[in-house]
Amino acid sequence: MLALFLLAGCGGRSERTLRVLAAASATGPVRELGATFEQKNPGVKVELSFGSSTAHERQIEAGAACDVFLAASRKNVERLAAKGLIEPSCPTVARNALVAIVPRGEAAPPDVAALASLARVAVGARGVPVGEYAREALGGALPDSKLAGYPDEPAVVTAVAKGAAPAGICYSSSVAGEAGVTRAFTLPTRTPIEYPAALVKSGDATLGHAFLDLLLSDEGQATFARHGFFGEPGGGATPLRGHGELRALLVSLEVASLALALMLPPGLALAFLLARGPARLRTAVEALVMLPLVLPPVAIGVGLLAIFGRQGLGFLSLVGTWQGASLAAAVVALPVFVRVARAALEDVDPRLEAIASVLGAPPWRVALTITLPLARRGLLAATVLGFARALGEFGATIVVAGAVSGETETLPIAIFQAFEERGSAASLCLVSGALALGLAALSAWLSPRRTT
């Protein structure tokens, strides 16, 4: 099984694929230009992943497969260029402006001083380009206690549109066509808000150059302008992703199935050790096994990036792949499986095992013919719960694998993406909820009934 996993992680693709990591604020024009590129280049598939430029920078550092990186700040590409990971020439393909926004229908503050009277202002988190631009423009006029940080720019707009914050600071392009917010005023920035495009050295140079040419062409520039870039609002709202419930579900099932295959062998061995092993080892082993249950999933993802990234076991090429997402999901789900499986094994009467041993059966035969058959319902319940936990994993998987549509975009990630882009996530939540409820009911039905 491990060999199959390694082959899956290292294997190539039968079709040419252009991988683009782009700033979340550039979702609209980049998605449109990605479709245009596919039309102009038959046989080429464009895989797009949108998110924080800083998060994408970390993924490229860790060895994520990427051909073109479109950042919302020149600092991101400068750091990568200094490490020799991208080509030094990074042309600017778009520009933007910074504006303050309020929920639709609310009184718009006239200037920065008026923002100080509000309870909080939504901005990007520290390190996120839109957050850094906002803090630079504010110049300390607002204390940090009033700045609510969000993971990327669309999340800032969504927070204001939903009423989670009375005001926010975002890009001018995001206000064009957004019905939930109103522009209040423009904030000048010392640093120009530019979107540089970089060619990643480890990527496909031919496809990367071709896509960069499209971004810089008259057609590409007109597309950016139509979506409100260059500081002037364009002709409408950013198109929604058109999330496919079936596509996200299939990716989730694929990721969770491999995660289950990865966790079963070590999980079963650990459950046996905790149920039948020496008492002196149980406390230490249980503490280690349960660690992923209490650690933030994002921290687990960061740890896996360090292990399997460019500076670690980078030759496995798991970063940015669905196999990497499966590994992350398996690590997070392992404690759930072990905990339930251990309880199932402990329910087996040890006297029956002792009798088999006295009759000359070796330990492996006792396990196969006595322990496992008697514990089968509980072990099946553990398997279902482990699969369900892997299916719902978000934090570790998005750090390790990103959000590539049709490749690593699982149901939880699709829900997050849909919510950020102001689309309705109701149908995705319904699919996820129905699946979770069904798996939970199946696990409860499989669990052995205790009698007193």
* Separation, N- and C-terminal Cα atoms: 41 Å
Low-confidence stretches: 1-13, 231-243
Remind me, CATH topology of the largest domain? Answer: MetI-like fold
Q: Helix coverage percent of residues?
A: 40-55%
State which percent range the strand residues make up: 5-15%
What number of domains?
A: 3
Order of helices and strands: HEHEHEHEEHEHEHEEEHHHHHHHHHHHH
Q: Based on Cα principal axes, name the global outline.
A: elongated
Mean pLDDT: 85
CATH architecture of the largest domain: Orthogonal Bundle
List the helices and strands and how they pair.
Blueprint: H1 2-10, E1 16-23, H2 27-40, E2 44-51, H3 53-61, E3 68-70, H4 74-82, E4 92-95, E5 98-103, H5 112-115, E6 121-124, H6 129-138, E7 147-150, H7 153-161, E8 168-171, E9 181-187, E10 194-199, H8 205-216, H9 218-226, H10 245-276, H11 279-294, H12 297-308, H13 322-346, H14 350-358, H15 363-374, H16 376-391, H17 395-401, H18 411-420, H19 426-446
Parallel strand pairs: 1-2, 1-3, 6-7
Antiparallel strand pairs: 3-10, 4-10, 5-8, 5-9
Helix pairs in contact: 2-9, 10-11, 10-13, 10-16, 11-13, 12-17, 13-16, 13-17, 14-15, 16-19, 18-19
